[in-house]
Amino acid sequence: MAKAKKSSTSTLQKWFGKKGFSLKRLRELFMTGKDVNEAASEPVRVVLNLSPSASSALLSGLHGAFLSQTKNGLIHVEDIVPGRRLHINPQADFSIILAPEDEALAKGAAQTAAAWMRAGVPTVVVGASQTVLVSIKTTVELNLAQAGVFGEDATTMLNTICSSSAKAMLPQLAKWLLSVSEKDLALGANWPFMRQTVSRKLILNASLANLAAGGIDIIPGADFPLMAVTQSQMAMKIAAVYGYEVNLERIPELLFIVLSGLVMRGISKGLTSPMRHGKFLIKGAIGFAGTWAVGEALIQRFENGQTIDEVLDDMGQNSKVALSKVSETVSTKWGELTGALLEIEPGAIYKAL
After folding, report:
1. Are 74 and 345 in contact (CB under 8 A)?
2. pLDDT one-digit tens code per residue, 172-210
3. What SS3 state is found at 178?
4. Residue (of 256, 152, 238, 257) closest to 188 by Cα position
5. Do 107 and 132 touch, CB atoms closer than 8 A?
6. What SS3 class is residue 105?
7. Cα distance between residue 5 and residue 16, in whole Å
8. Backbone phi, then psi, for 79, in 5-degree steps?
9. Which domains can be identified in the chain, with CATH numbers?
10. E strand or H helix at 4
11. Considering Cα of 174, then 178, then 180, then 183, what sign does the dihedral take?
12. What is the pTM of this model?
């Protein structure tokens, strides 16, 4: 047992150094930043199929939402026209179908959804009429069941979103896109309506990781460098989501993280010093809350162009919000620990069916 502990200790010392966050670790973090830049630059193929008599409010919302911010956001737009052959690209990341408001025209949207799903492309149907959406989903599921394409799993790639306003629809769409795509950073880098949703997923993951790191007691102070690295990686990813390249310009954020980490460490030591048992609970809670507060502060920095001083001013409020989330999030998420609508993808192969 002692031997295993020594091995773990030497591993941590080798990674963080006896003094913790070293310049070597900083350089390795920027190597990680290279991977972050590459992930944010992945191409994302979006298909938008528009039904006749679709909601003008939702059409306008999609029009504004999918103005790509980089050359890697590839949009294919096609109207659903009765009798016209549909063009399919199995390499598309997801398909968004704008449903008609007239139920008599729902068949075309259902056929379109079924075609994309047969190609293995995750599909969502968006519309203002719940009756029309239910009709479309029922028709698609029957179509696929009869074809034996997915069997009992036919519904796993199909979703519907009912909303009469783009403001209410877009957050639901962002959540669905994250659930079906692994290109989180690229989604945020290309489309601003995705950024807060992607960033808060990154914040939650980092906060849960530091909740666990708070319980580490292998060598004195081991939790601080672990948490600092997790927060630094989170910061680089959030920067990439907001369209900032990860390079030497990110040093202020990393220094901010180290500073806030030292403050949280001091608070943790002050609270746990008199305690004999259960220190890891306090340290974990502070790790979670501190990471959440740092993440929220970084969102404000990148979204509003704040300086580091302004970010620090907001930290107190963010910390209060984060602490209020600890109990509810820990209890429900602990198990997760263990332009215009134009064709802008030249050369894409969309085969007519």
Report:
1. yes
2. 999 999 999 999 999 999 999 999 999 999 999 998 888
3. helix
4. 238
5. no
6. helix
7. 16
8. -75, 145
9. 8-39+190-336 (no CATH), 44-182 (3.40.50)
10. helix 2-16
11. positive
12. 0.73
